[in-house]
Amino acid sequence: MSNSVLVVEDQEDIAAPLVRTLQREGYDVTWVDSGKKALELLAPPYEAELVLLDLGLPDMDGLEVCKAARDNGYEGGIMILTARDAEIDLVVGLDAGADDYLAKPFALAVLQARVRALLRRSGPVEAGADDDALRIDVAAHRVYAGEREVTLTGKEFALLAVLAASRDKVVSRDRLMAEVWDENWYGSTKTLDVTVGRLRQKLEAAGVQEKVVAVRGVGFRLEAGE
């Protein structure tokens, strides 16, 4: 079964080549030209696995669409496509729940690589044995604190999965950027710090004992709490 991608872009001359390129790659693509139409599709049963989201929509800002989709429980990948390339816009977009950010104009080959990276699943991860411990179900793409599910974005889940696969060991920043984003990522690594911060907040709020610890100048480690 092919992966489903939702393209949210109001300019047909930009959307058309995106749609054709993704369809040639074998994806099931849906195109809409407004935030309202996007949110209608980003509701249960959440058919789109990945959203390519333009910020400059005619009816509402793409960041509003991103935040609303996350608030409504959408857990698929969200990649922002925008002419805004300032770092502050990157941080705001990630805080709104986006997983990736691509500034216009961009090469279609770069877009394809980013799409594959977002859709790529992490490898097997051992689940915690204790009922109160962190449990990661890679096949279902879900995380639990005991019996309670912790809602994470695609990037947050992938980051946690990589850290959990090397539990109590330091994972370098370079490795995290390559495995969670893309080995050819050329953007600011601040995206990693922002995602780690969001992940920490969600794990702490859920009462998870494991902590994501920063090792200055090296990377991050997932370690057991006290």
From TrEMBL:
OmpR/PhoB-type domain sequence ranges: 122-224
Molecular function terms, GO-annotated: phosphorelay response regulator activity; transcription cis-regulatory region binding
Keyword hit for Glycoprotein: no
Start-end of DNA-binding region: 122-224
Keywords: DNA-binding, Phosphoprotein, Two-component regulatory system
One GO BP: regulation of DNA-templated transcription
Gene Ontology terms: cellular component: cytosol; protein-DNA complex
PROSITE patterns in UniProt: OMPR_PHOB (PS51755), RESPONSE_REGULATORY (PS50110)
Domain Response regulatory stretches: 4-119
InterPro entries referenced in this protein's UniProt entry, alphabetically: CheY-like_superfamily, OmpR/PhoB-type_DNA-bd, Sig_transdc_resp-reg_receiver, WalR-like, WH-like_DNA-bd_sf
CDD domains per the UniProt record, alphabetical: trans_reg_C
4-aspartylphosphate PTM positions: 54
Family annotation (SUPFAM superfamilies): CheY-like (SSF52172)
Family matches, as Pfam families: Response_reg (PF00072), Trans_reg_C (PF00486)
Name of the molecule in the record: DNA-binding response regulator
Lineage of the species this protein comes from: Bacteria, Bacillati, Actinomycetota, Actinomycetes, Propionibacteriales
